[in-house]
Amino acid sequence: MNNNGYYGRYGGSYIPEILYTSQQQLLKEYRQAQADSSFQLELQQEMQQFSGRPTPLTPCRNLSKLLGGAQIYLKREDLNHSGAHKMNNVIGQGLLVKRMGKKRIIAETGAGQHGIASALIAARLGLECTVYMGAKDIERQYPNVFWMKQLGAEVVPVTSGGQTLRDALDEALRDWTDSHPSSHYLIGTSCGCAPYPEMVAKFQSVIGRETKEQSQQLFNALPDAVYASVGGGSNACGIMLPFQSDVAVELIGVEAGGRGTKPGDHAVRLSNNRAETDSPAMLGSPGIAQGFASIFLQDEQGQLQETHSIAAGLDYVGVSPIIADLAEKNRLRMIAAKDDKVIEAFQLLLRHEGIIPALESAHAVAGAISEIPQRPKEQNVVINISGRGDKDIFNVASAVGDPEFDRFLSRYLDQSLKT
Q1: How far apart are CA 35 and CA 396, in angstroms?
Q2: E strand or H helix at 51
């Protein structure tokens, strides 16, 4: 990264002039906090005492035996307090909000995991919290919406566009433009104007640092490969960047292959395993949107396309400039997993290891298990389980066609209407 927040040709700050003062304040406070031992100590304490770090690296002996290839280990970010890796970033940014003397945070969310993490840290630090969430995402992730509201956050449904994460981010940016003197935009992924990509990745890098230490303890070596799902890119940056200079460690990101290859049916921007289509290897194209330069799914006129994923956290139209740069430099290999394979991977992990992954994390599992049988048994592979699947109960029940669950919902609704 250079001093202007660029990673190769991606990144930078493309913001309205009105936000310049707030952006510079954030940049200054973030830089000072990185050199402030008291801030770093408070950050470490909050991660340990509030979120429950370190998270374990769990061997998957049953699944490894079943697949017959490399040995599988899971980095268990699902065991964070909020149920996902998002807690790492909101703790860091929440402490920066205190440092800047602001009283309100703004957040956007897709799967709801960043929203609930933002609501949790706001409650802990005594901050006001407004969360923007696409109306479509609210419907499919309502358990998280319920808890956000119970925690005192205002959840604003976004009904414009595709009513998903992209649209929620647009609305959050509008709010920040109007309220920046007293509000901080707590971006949940490693996108946006500088210093957000660097800052989010830095707070999330605790995942990779722990993984390096734990892999040495468990199998006395670094992993041969690391897999992570890629929506915006925060969990992938978090586990992968500490391995960036370890060239023997292969880094693989897994995007949302969705339900098909037509525009609007997937969220594939960078993957190169789509031989079933006539599309180029890089389905996204360079562009500037939402404050930064990166790879986006766009039409010929540069308009951002609609996307789809069974996982609400992976249907973002762009990708972190850090991820785009690593992929362009061939340090990161990108693949895609379709919805049906994701459900299969979800069920495999559930039934053979007793772990319920988020559908976002199940993309990483699906990508890994498509390749693990071809890897030598002496290899060790780490999959980042970025979140747990409690929030996905409605989507999973629908995908697997569980009639018992449908009957339960009908009975519950009937009883609720009677009372």
Answers
A1: 44
A2: none
DSSP state of 292: E
pLDDT of 278 reads 42
Q: Confidence class of residue 272 from pLDDT cuts 50, 70 and 90?
A: low
Please list the active-site residues: 60, 85
Rg of the Cα atoms in the chain: 20
pLDDT digit string, tens, across residues 81-121: 999 999 999 999 999 999 999 999 999 998 889 999 999 99
What are 403-418's pLDDT values in tens digits?
999 899 889 888 877 7
pLDDT band for position 370 (50/70/90)? very high
Label residue 103 exposed, middle or buried (CB < 10 Å: 0-12, 13-18, 19+): middle
Average confidence score pLDDT of the chain: 94
Cα separation of 175 and 231, whole Å?
23
Per-residue DSSP letters for 197-248? HHHHHHHHTHHHHHHHHHHHHHHSS--SEEEEE-SSSHHHHHHHGGGTT-TT
Instruction: Confirm if 139 and 112 have CB atoms less than 8 A apart.
Output: no
Q: How far apart are CA 71 and CA 48, in angstroms?
A: 29
Helix (H) or strand (E) holding 252: strand 250-258
Residues in the chain: 419
| Cβ–Cβ under 8 Å, residues 315 and 256 | yes
pLDDT, average across residues 301-316: 93
The residue assigned the tokens 């400039």 is 321
Domains in the chain, start-ordered, CATH in brackets?
Answer: 16-51+86-200 (3.40.50.1100), 57-82+205-397 (3.40.50.1100)
Is residue 262 over pLDDT 50?
yes
Please state whether beta strands 6-7 and 10-11 pair in parallel, antiparallel, or not at all (unpaired): antiparallel
